[in-house]
Amino acid sequence: MEWLNRMMDAIDLIERRIAEKTDIEEIARAAYSSPFHFQRMFYMLTGITVAEYVRRRKLTLAAQELASSQARVLDVALKYGYESPEAFSKAFRRAHGISPSEARSPGAALKAFPRISFQLSLKGDAEMEYRIVEKGAYRAIGTFIQTTTCEGQNLTDISAFWRRANADGTARRLAEAAPGKDLLGICTNMDDGSETLDYWIAAESEAEAEGWAALEIPAATWAVFPTVGPMPGAIQKTWQRIFQEWFPSTGYEHAGGVEIEVYPEGDTNAEDYRCEVWVPIVKK
């Protein structure tokens, strides 16, 4: 499959340039993709960001070099992009549990993060319903947290954010401030290639509402995916299928910008609870 070959070309480029400064735009071009779409695809397929993959691979290779040669710690640190031995030692200890100098000891236990290899997984056992929607710009109000995708922290933080919002009345007050509108979960500020993002609990509203932050949602073409089942498991599975199955088999890619989850009123723990995922798309 063409997308599989392109992702492997991107991995080849990362590995060839592993000791150099990584240019995400160049890597994305190897996959014939926009930087945003490539990074979202990579994260959803592997569970880690491109930056985290590069970081882990550098520390794996650095450990191998220290264990098998007499190279100075300073030289290895500089080779793999660390500005000081202190910064390298801190990252090395976090990855391997020992210092760089201890990696030279006979029998030292080191951790290896292998090169990623993408493989085609034939699915097709379950249909994937979707529709394409053109929607103009609109305004939303709500509250948000900043979280990180590093080691999947965003999944933990977002689930906890919803639990707090339901427990302390935030979700109820928001529904009252935007009567007749569904609650939204909105991911924003993902375009800069960092591992941080903002996650909003919000609702569409053109009115000023005291005590709420406001967010402008730009006009876009959206792929909308219905989701049925208890939260958050059902919607997390839908996100995985969008990137693992839908994008690779269609002529679309992620347009960048916000991603939206639409939560109608109802029992979110019910087996028949229905919600939606909205992803901005462009034709490749």
Structure overview:
- Keywords: DNA-binding, Transcription, Transcription regulation.
- This is AraC family transcriptional regulator.
- Residues 8-106 form the HTH araC/xylS-type domain.
- GO terms for molecular function: DNA-binding transcription factor activity; sequence-specific DNA binding.
- InterPro entries: AraC_E-bd (IPR010499), Cass2 (IPR029441), Homeodomain-like_sf (IPR009057), HTH_AraC (IPR018060), HTH_AraC-typ_CS (IPR018062), MarA-like (IPR050959), Reg_factor_effector_dom_sf (IPR011256), Tscrpt_reg_AraC-type_HTH (IPR020449).
- With 284 residues, the protein is of the alpha+beta class.
- The protein folds into two domains: 2-104, Arc Repressor Mutant, subunit A (Orthogonal Bundle); 131-283, Multidrug-efflux Transporter 1 Regulator Bmrr, Chain A, CATH 3.20.80.10.
- The chain contains nine helices and nine strands.
- It has helices spanning 2-16, 24-30, 35-46, 50-68, 73-79, 85-96, 153-167, 170-177, 233-246, and strands at residues 131-135, 138-148, 183-188, 196-204, 213-217, 220-228, 252-254, 259-263, 274-283.
- Strands 1, 2, 3, 4, 5, 6, 7, 8 and 9 form a nine-stranded antiparallel sheet that branches.
- A hairpin with a 7-residue loop joins strand 3 and strand 4 (196-204).
- Helix 1 runs antiparallel to helix 2, helix 2 crosses helix 3 (35-46) and helix 3 packs across helix 9 (233-246).
- The two termini are 16 Å apart.
- The model has no long low-confidence stretch (mean pLDDT 90).
List keywords for this structure.
284 residues; alpha+beta; Arc Repressor Mutant, subunit A; Multidrug-efflux Transporter 1 Regulator Bmrr, Chain A; 2 domains; nine-stranded antiparallel sheet; 9 strands; 38% helix
